[in-house]
Design goal:
Elements (H helix, E strand, L loop, with lengths): L2 H17 L4 H12 L16 H15 L24 E2 L10 E4 L5 E4 L11 E2 L2 E3 L5 E3 L6 E6 L2 E5 L4 E5 L12 E5 L4 E6 L5 E4 L4 E5 L7 E12 L8 E5 L2 E5 L3 E6 L5 E8 L2 E5 L2 E5 L3 E6 L7 E4 L2 H4 L6 E7 L1 H12 L2 E5 L7 E6 L4 H8 L5 E5 L2 E5 L1
Parallel strand pairs: 4-11, 9-11, 14-15, 24-27
Antiparallel strand pairs: 1-25, 2-3, 5-6, 5-10, 7-8, 8-9, 10-13, 11-12, 12-14, 13-14, 14-17, 15-16, 16-19, 17-18, 18-21, 19-20, 21-22, 23-25, 26-27
Helix pairs in contact: 1-2
Pfam family, one: FecR
Protein name: FecR family protein
GO molecular function, one term: sigma factor antagonist activity
Length: 391
């Protein structure tokens, strides 16, 4: 079928979608085409009895009802993407469908975008920002530093790569009787950064997080300390365990992928395993995790380790540039927004206890996230660097 024929076909499917005459097979066909972001533009039909807003809502409702997100085929089937928010629309649980008061347009690449009215006050998203503190106490602002070798510590070179990574280049482990130099990388609120440790372990730091580590590991163990949220892809070494200390817990691995959320303003330290196996220990208790399991260690009182099965892709979405909410309440969402947009949260009146499931890109301005949430009956106001949340 030529490009004009393809265009006609998908315009017909769009009309069927609006008229609620589309079949399940046609819905899958239309969704598969739409998510490819092809270069051929498509115009959602207009001119029906309902107004444009209602057309849009009908499409969103149909997506919510019939294009189900299949977790077992996460990499094959995705939500319909509305490109101005760069992710699936937030879905509310147990309340009417969301209505988005934004104007529709068709981009050159054929993706339906939304042209939002600019907010009077807005906050840009975070980015690659971090500070490196060397063993001698001197500091290097990594986001301002030029690419190349930033420092030399013993035989270890600290190199900032073009990919916004700090890479530690060392000849190998050092004898146990030699002193070890420790560095710390800290991200501010509104920051994130990546580092490759001397053994090849890859580390992602979320906003308001830190990692303290040796410039080169000894022959006994590999040990680091973290705060905040950090994702690890640990280089395999069956003879040299890798240990991560976060608050009252220690995670031990030989080589695997996992995430630790150890923010002190959360109820617990959460360790989520993506690959391999890990041992989690806290105050005399020990558990072993298998992929898609998450341990929880209470941040208050005596540690009591519990294990839940989770969607690992959702937990790790932050490092790939998305917020993903799974039955999340407003305070939880606002804590994430506070760290990423570097804003203060204030609450006024009663706050809705409704929970939300959905996702949105972390590259959008704060106002876009808040616009999606306000249809719950919760009002938001941005004042300088403060979000006022009220009913």
């Amino acid at each position: 079928m030529n490009s004009n024929g393809s265009l006609d076909r998908y315009q017909q499917l769009a009309k069927k979608w609006l008229d609620k005459t589309i079949t399940p097979a046609e819905q899958e066909e239309f969704a598969a085409w739409y998510n490819k972001g092809q270069d051929t533009p498509v115009n959602i039909p207009r001119g029906f009895a309902e107004d444009e807003e209602s057309h849009r809502v009908r499409i969103l409702n149909k997506v919510n009802e019939t294009i189900k997100y299949d977790r077992s085929h996460r990499n094959k089937i995705k939500y319909i993407r509305w490109t101005s928010i760069a992710a699936a629309c937030l879905l509310l649980l147990s309340i009417p469908p969301l209505y988005f008061h934004i104007r529709k347009k068709v981009t050159k690449k054929g993706n339906i975008a939304y042209q939002q009215k600019p907010a009077k006050h807005d906050v840009a998203p975070g980015g690659n920002k971090a500070v490196l503190t060397l063993a001698n106490g001197s500091k290097i602002v990594l986001n301002d530093a030029k690419n190349g070798v930033l420092a030399r510590q013993g035989k270890t070179l600290l190199n900032k790569a073009k990919t916004n990574q700090l890479v530690y280049m060392a000849p190998g482990s050092v004898p146990n009787n030699l002193p070890v130099a420790y560095n710390t990388i800290s991200t501010p609120r509104g920051g994130q950064f990546q580092v490759v440790l001397s053994d090849g372990t890859k580390v992602w730091l979320n906003a308001a997080s830190s990692i303290t580590f040796p410039t080169v590991f000894t022959k006994n163990e590999r040990r680091v300390n973290i705060t905040g949220e950090v994702y690890f892809e640990v280089a395999k070494n069956k003879h040299l365990p890798f240990r991560v200390v976060a608050g009252k817990q220690t995670v031990e691995v030989l080589g695997t992928h996992f995430n630790i959320n150890a923010y002190t303003d959360e109820n617990s330290i959460k360790t989520t395993l993506a690959e391999g196996s890990v041992k989690v220990s806290a105050e005399g208790q020990t558990v072993f995790l298998t992929p898609d399991e998450q341990s929880n260690v209470s941040n208050s009182g005596k540690a009591n380790i519990t294990i839940n099965t989770v969607d690992t892709d959702d937990i790790l979405a932050w490092k790939d540039g998305s917020f993903v909410f799974e039955k999340a309440d407003i305070p939880f969402i606002m804590r994430q927004a506070s760290r990423w947009y570097d804003v203060t949260i204030k609450y006024e009146g009663n706050i809705s206890d409704r929970r939300f499931t959905g996702s949105i890109s972390r590259s959008v301005n704060l106002s876009e996230l808040l616009k999606m949430l306000k249809y719950t009956g919760v009002n938001f106001k941005i004042s300088d660097k403060t979000i006022v949340v009220g009913s």
